[in-house]
């Protein structure tokens, strides 16, 4: 069920921000930049904890996520990547992504990242409309983004993603269309389009609960979702995952690791990992994270062994997020049983309801199935009892 | 022969409105007579049903023998017989009163007399009891002792000269109460030589001794080994044990005329030892059973279903175990297309129903779905046959029905003057007919209404409380059956009729009720892949409709490495929730939807 045939992916969490955005529920510590150097030292030490594991197989992708990873200096970045290369086997053509906010990014800094080995940039744009950016609590303008894209190209980045949000309160359908049109015209090779989620604990969630902010009309949000799917495909983007679009050859390999339910290492405070059938979550406190590492312990806050039934459930709801779906033969060779042996009745029902379809050896969502994907996923959980 | 022994016995109960301090006074009497210390009392005596304590009502009776050394130097045996405190249990109250010669009427010095108190006072007067008014809570700043005295004189016509003025909470003047009991309540006047005659005023099931009958000895004597006969139940048993409560059961050699105590006779079924029945000796029967026995019959029915189908046997076991102690609870198997296998249960009234439901949930840890309560309708068919219908699903086809009669109750509602308007409005909405209105004093009014029982059993009491800011009190008794324009209202979800939601309603209210139910259900039924129409119909005619709009998008925007565990748990939780839903056609209906229609008064 678990194999180390596949190369490993590594996620590195950088929980630092200048300021937290109103909708964000990721772990980040606004305004603690003075701790960044120490944090990087801890990260380097954490890599050593996985020395044995890293020796077993090559690393094919690295992803710096946050927070705002672009708060790392070029030196930080190269030290981390050098460490990975020294301890493990970082393949030559490994995909190395850094998330960045289009704020205060300089050409030198971008060059330094590129120099360090970063070859993919994921920019948190969210919208091309400044009032909407202000509403979300973003610290940049659309113009900043255009500037950064230009600098990134100068620095040699070909592989660039832009994150976009639709369904922002006050956002018009036309504005959403305009954002996509702008990015398409710029030939941004990868786009992630997310419906705005009101995550509990965020200021945005509170504002909605207290009635200060009203969620976007459901039909409008749906229209935006659908327009994106159809229009981007017309323009040559592949809708390869529920929320992700890429020009040919530009899909994100790191994220595909998650959706194929493969293993990955999580480094940094709050990072999640999945190794040898165990899902782990690192401590979310700087202090306990650093202390554990200094004592040579894994900084886990909790861990969960994934049994067969859980693994099958995860494979289903992760794999179906991808438009190509789940390969029936790959499933069978992984679990030694067919998908039908777990879900014959459920799959038949979902096919009959027009939510699932079989397509050249893959089981995948229909267009309707994408819209109602949660209904599908829920049906395809193996009950653990 | 009238024995001198009985001169030293006093049998009495306490009549009080909820919150007027009945149990506190009982505790003080126990304490003052030195039976148990106050610390022990907390542990021993108040350790009864959790539910009773929470609701401040007595469901199962408590009986206790106290020994009191009076001011005249003599020691008296005082038997305190508790009474249940709710209109559903009027019959039980009347039987406990029948076991006494006198009663203490406890009236709150601030609140004065309440409807329910009054109802019980009338019961006591019917039994010819000596009633001693006791004004409680005189320590309250809002106490108005003189006014309350006047109320007692004016409304009930009792002399208030020299009555005990107490504070049970503070332990003030408790001796006065005990002295009054000794001096004013007459001793029993039974004949120990005559054939055995004893009144059963309560019973409960004990795992070791079988059914324990709580009894008041009227004539003769009772001892272990004696063969007894239940005069109404027509069953014979051999006594294994007799005793008194002081405060726990204490075995005695014999119980004699005038005594209050218990009898055990290896009785397996509580229904063989019914409240109100007369016990006599099998080989020497009394000529005349005690008057007033009636078999209590359920007035309100509802369906009780396990929330999870596989718990059917558990619910059955639990109901059987409750029934062992509750002769008034009846149930039989019932099957619903929507809810599966369950039970149709009959109760004395709404409170009784709620208590049983709560006990099933708390004491047996069951998750239940209950259907709307129904009364028993008498349906006269065109073929001359008459059927009793307590499940709306069983109502014959309209063309087979000549007429339907519904039960009517006489309700007496006591409120403050300022709420008379809203109470009349409420009663009018509930098809009430006003019969009488009496001003008890300048501020309080007693209003008598004739109300259809099916209007009372919904949320009448809640509505009354909310419209009178909690001050209205209600008492009702069965009046009889009356012809009425009733129809069966059905609910259709996505075109499928849901039997568990059908109910019988007066024509004039069918439209409104149908509309309200559709609205409620619309909020409770989750959105599906398709639009779900919810309709209310009478026969083939649709009278109300709502639609649960189709779900267009249910998408998790992001799912990356750090989201997987959390999202999986979310999906699992959702699936778990749906597993517990009921399938109506291809629509998933949450349990809550079935319950939400029980309270429609907005």
Automatic annotation (TrEMBL), chain A:
Swiss-Prot/TrEMBL GO biological process terms: porphyrin-containing compound biosynthetic process
Entry GO MF terms: 4 iron, 4 sulfur cluster binding; coproporphyrinogen oxidase activity; metal ion binding
Major site of localization recorded for this protein: cytoplasm
GO cellular component, one term: cytoplasm
Keywords of the record: 4Fe-4S, Chaperone, Cytoplasm, Heme, Iron, Iron-sulfur, Metal-binding, S-adenosyl-L-methionine
Pfam families: HemN_C, Radical_SAM
Start and end residues of each Radical SAM core domain: 2-230
Record localization: Cytoplasm
SMART domains in the record: Elp3 (SM00729)
Protein role: Probably acts as a heme chaperone, transferring heme to an unknown acceptor. Binds one molecule of heme per monomer, possibly covalently. Binds 1 [4Fe-4S] cluster. The cluster is coordinated with 3 cysteines and an exchangeable S-adenosyl-L-methionine.
Similarity comment text for this entry: Belongs to the anaerobic coproporphyrinogen-III oxidase family. HemW subfamily.
Name listed for the protein in its UniProt record: Heme chaperone HemW
TrEMBL record, chain B:
Keyword Iron-sulfur (UniProt): no
Membrane topology: Peripheral membrane protein
Catalysed reaction, written as an equation: GTP + H2O = GDP + phosphate + H(+)
Species in which this protein is naturally found: Anoxynatronum buryatiense
Sample GO molecular function, one term: translation elongation factor activity
Keywords assigned by UniProt, alphabetized: Cell membrane, GTP-binding, Hydrolase, Membrane, Nucleotide-binding, Protein biosynthesis
Record EC number: 3.6.5.n1
Any one Gene Ontology BP term: positive regulation of translation
Protein's name according to its UniProt entry: Elongation factor 4
Tagged with keyword Heme: no
Family the entry assigns: Belongs to the TRAFAC class translation factor GTPase superfamily. Classic translation factor GTPase family. LepA subfamily. Belongs to the GTP-binding elongation factor family. LepA subfamily.
Binding site for GTP: 19-24, 136-139
Domain of life of the organism encoding this protein: Bacteria
GO (cellular component) term, any one: plasma membrane
Domain Tr-type G: 7-189
Taxonomy of the source species: Bacteria, Bacillati, Bacillota, Clostridia, Eubacteriales
